[in-house]
Write a structure and sequence with these properties.
CATH topology of the largest domain: Aspartate Aminotransferase, domain 2
Radius of gyration: 20 Å
Structural class: alpha/beta
Number of strands: 10
CATH architecture of the largest domain: 3-Layer(aba) Sandwich
Length: 325
């Protein structure tokens, strides 16, 4: 089902998801706006408590996933100012957050699935930033471990493998907000206090330059509605991914479906441009660039294609995509 055939498949299921949740979202909107408390209220507390329970680490919300990384970078620069190890292949925010505060960065080659190889950190105070690319589970390394968990934090039973994990709730993620949203969980008490003060520069205890980085009460209320369906949505993602993987003639960048969050379904092929022209549904490239021009990173940037995958895909649409694989 490729070539000239038309398709109504969109790259995301956000419109369908809203249609399903509309009554609950509108009820929550009316309730929050009626209270007159729009920031740092009970809904924020409930959502942070839910995140803390899931991650088994104290968790605070911030404005978005990029700011979550930036706040970690601010803390690390101020506290240790050591070497920060980053993967050569990732979304640009992973790089920019640490560049922005002037951290000393070393880039590490990735494996065939785009996951960072062993950084061989030289000091225990070096910061190793591991990216759960496309939803992949991670393995710990030496150093202070920060998971850039924007894509994988819901996978592998919410198992955290390090001291810090940053999360994103932007509309493309497995638990999507209607705008931006992010969080940081950490087992480091000093970092937790830093986040609490730094995200709110009217906080009574802040004593240094800070910022304003918070999710709204409505954001958090919507997240709690969607959280009720997260397990069901994750099962559907894996069901679709498993079916495609059983039939796909291309390499799929999922090394372990059991632990994977399936935030993206990415295939690798040499004739990427031809494939994208032939299929009757939208595709994207995550990512067409590298953070450092290592061999595997360059290869991935030239060969990866992301396909639509979301719980709201119908069985018929799943078949259309499957036929193209």
């Amino acid at each position: 089902m490729i070539g000239s055939q038309s398709s109504t498949i969109k790259f995301t299921g956000l419109q369908r998801q809203y249609k399903f949740l509309r009554d609950q979202i509108l009820e929550a909107t009316d309730h929050v706006y009626s209270t007159g408390q729009h920031m740092l209220g009970p809904n924020t507390r409930y959502f942070e408590e839910w995140l803390t329970k899931k991650n088994k680490q104290p968790t605070l919300t911030v404005d978005n996933g990029t700011q979550a990384l930036e706040i970690v970078a601010e803390w690390y620069k101020k506290t240790y100012d050591g070497t920060v190890y980053l993967p050569a292949f990732s979304f640009i925010a992973t790089d920019n957050a640490f560049k922005r505060v002037g951290c000393k960065i070393k880039y590490v080659e990735v494996d065939e699935y785009g996951l960072m190889q062993d950084a061989h950190a030289e000091e225990w105070t070096d910061l190793v930033v591991l990216v759960g690319l496309y939803g992949a589970a991670l393995k710990p390394q030496k150093g202070i471990i920060c998971e850039d968990g924007a894509q994988n934090w819901t996978g592998n039973g919410f198992k955290r493998i390090g001291d810090i994990c940053t999360m994103s709730f932007d509309p493309m993620k497995n638990l999507p907000n209607y705008g931006n949203g992010g969080a940081i969980c950490t087992s480091i008490p000093e970092l937790y206090e830093f986040i609490k003060n730094f995200r709110h520069h009217h906080h009574p205890k802040y004593t240094d330059v800070a910022t304003n980085s918070k999710m709204s009460e409505l954001d958090c209320a919507c997240m709690m509605i969607k959280a009720k369906y997260l397990e069901e949505w994750e099962r559907r993602r894996k069901e679709i991914a498993k079916y495609w993987m059983e039939n796909c003639k291309y390499k799929v960048l999922i090394n372990d479906l059991y632990t994977h969050a399936v935030q993206k379904f990415v295939i690798q092929l040499d004739d990427r441009d031809d494939f994208r022209k032939k299929v009757c549904y939208p595709t994207r490239i995550n990512y067409p660039y590298t953070l450092a021009p290592t061999e595997n990173a360059v290869m991935l940037s030239k060969t990866v294609v992301s396909l639509p995958i979301y719980p709201e895909l119908t069985d018929a649409e799943v078949e259309i995509i499957n036929d193209s694989l």
